[in-house]
Specification:
The chain has about 325 residues and is an alpha/beta fold. The chain folds into 2 domains: about 270 residues, Aldolase class I (TIM Barrel, Alpha-Beta Barrel); about 35 residues, no CATH class. About 40% of the residues lie in helices and about 15% in strands. The protein is built from 13 helices and 8 strands. It has an 8-stranded parallel barrel, surrounded by 4 helices. Helix 3 links the parallel strand 2 and strand 3. Helix 2 packs antiparallel against helix 10, helix 7 runs parallel beside helix 8 and helix 11 runs parallel beside helix 13. The longest helix is centred in the C-terminal third of the chain and has 17 residues. It is globular, with a radius of gyration of 19 Å.
Length: about 325
């Protein structure tokens, strides 16, 4: 009998999406000091990629209502990272149909970014493919997040993977947007993606949400079955129930290239106070939407109101609407 959990797989790369996914909690209103501290922590902890935010359309999202990290303008990013001369690669997410990608994503030689992460629902795939090709032609490493995969029919998943096989996306990410998947489902999806991309050199990623307190467990399951591109956030911050916590992931991976102490220092210095101002985590309304495989927007709305602890009425309404 072997014990692989005491060793590590050097092919695994870690991406921190604290500012991007965590920014969904506060409209990306992180101040420069916070973003600089997260950036420095990623450097000190040996994290491979840091996602600075979105490349969102200013025609759809009014800049006055959002922080800099909704748009990742070049001047804003360089104010934090300078020329980013270290080994940490910088990424931004571009949502299909929410990004003016032809204009706002500059050629790579004009940007401090290294990676464009195209995020798409299955029905937006034609646009996403054009975005992937556009970013690749501009010189970026390009990845694709297939969102809300728990509600996509099997033939549609198969067709999407067949289409993405022919694109220059280097990684395709299993995204449990609703935090509804269990370990067996994650394992099956990772195997499906691996089989679909066999022989292409593409990597499989995992982006897990924590509605059922399974984000870390499901991330481990994905790794066991061959996912090598792993998303996490500091203190698990993210929309709704949040994400796989970086502090748990780094501790699990065993790779001496990753260091947990800087992460713990950041949590101590920044996130203790932040939790007094922002709310995220596997709260009961998020448990309910996760178990029912529904978007967490209804739970987010409930928790923003005066009746946020009325769990039974919330549950009954969601069930009656099924």
């Amino acid at each position: 009998m072997s014990a692989p959990w005491i060793t590590y797989r050097p092919e695994i790369k870690v991406l921190d999406c604290t500012v991007r996914d965590g920014g969904l909690v506060n409209d990306h209103m992180f101040d420069d000091g916070m973003v600089k501290d997260i950036y420095q922590t990623c450097l000190d902890a040996g994290v491979d990629y840091m996602e600075l935010g979105y490349k969102a359309s200013k025609k759809l999202f009014a800049p006055a209502k959002f922080g800099s990290w909704k748009f990742c303008d070049e001047d804003d990013m360089r104010r934090i990272v300078g020329e980013n001369d270290g080994s940490l690669k910088l990424a931004a997410m571009a949502d299909a149909e929410k990004t003016d990608y032809h204009e706002d994503i500059l050629p790579k030689d004009q940007s401090v970014l290294d990676v464009i992460r195209v995020a798409t629902y299955v029905h937006q795939l034609p646009v996403a493919v054009d975005m992937i090709n556009d970013a690749h032609q501009k010189g970026y490493e390009v990845t694709c997040n297939l969102m809300a995969i728990s509600v996509v029919q099997e033939p549609e998943i198969d067709q999407a993977l067949e289409v993405l096989r022919e694109t220059p996306a280097s990684t395709v990410v299993v995204v449990d947007s609703f935090g509804s998947l269990y370990g067996e489902q994650v394992a099956r999806l990772v195997k499906k993606y691996r089989d679909a991309f066999d022989g292409t050199g593409k990597e499989i990623g995992i982006h897990a949400h924590n509605n059922q307190q399974l984000a870390f467990a499901n991330t481990i399951e994905a790794i066991i079955h061959g996912a090598n591109r792993i998303d996490a956030t500091m203190a698990g911050i993210g929309r709704g129930a949040g994400n796989c916590p970086m502090e748990l992931l780094v501790g699990f991976l065993r790779n001496p290239a990753y260091r947990i102490r800087p992460v713990l220092q950041l949590l101590q210095d920044r996130f203790v106070d932040l939790r007094q101002k922002l709310e995220w985590g596997a709260l009961v309304p998020y448990n309910i939407t996760g178990q029912l495989n529904q978007h967490p927007r209804s739970a987010i709305s409930l928790l923003a109101g005066d009746d946020k602890d009325n769990y039974v009425e919330f549950y009954d309404k969601l069930v009656s609407d099924l």
